[in-house]
Specification:
- The C terminus is likely disordered.
- The chain has a single domain, classed as Hyaluronidase domain-like (Orthogonal Bundle).
- It is an all-alpha fold and about 120 residues long.
- It is built from 5 helices and no strands.
- The termini are far apart.
Length: about 120
């Protein structure tokens, strides 16, 4: 991931979702982390929460149930308290997915991905 990645929030969400869809959640984490470090501080919980969810999926895919659960929980907590612009992220829908993902940890079907944003959603709320 380039250090000088310069995307709009909408572009970052689409790119992150593309990585999630491709089974590359750690790459999605890198995109969300880049936004977290460059967006205004009042958006920190959104971007850091998304980054933590992506790393949680990474841990799940690697069989690290404890690490996956911890990061999915922390990411969800950040999103639950976030009240700023969502840039098309349906936070309640993401939180429902996280609940299902956490319930699937340690089973034969660990979470493989999340739908953070639909590709046609590019507007700020």
């Amino acid at each position: 991931m380039p250090e000088n990645l310069d995307l709009t929030p909408a572009q970052a969400l689409v790119l992150g979702q593309e990585y999630l869809d491709a089974g590359l959640p750690f790459h999605a984490h890198e995109v969300f982390e880049a936004e977290w470090k460059t967006r205004p501080s009042e958006e920190r919980d959104l971007w850091q929460g998304l980054a933590q969810l992506a790393v949680g999926i990474t841990h799940a895919l690697r069989g690290n149930r404890i690490g996956a659960d911890a990061l999915l929980r922390r990411g969800a907590e950040r999103l639950e308290r976030y009240r700023g612009p969502t840039y098309g992220v349906d936070i309640p829908a993401v939180l429902r997915q996280v609940t299902r993902a956490r319930a699937g940890l340690g089973t034969d079907t660990p979470p493989a991905s999340l739908v953070v944003v639909r590709r046609h959603s590019t507007s700020a709320e």
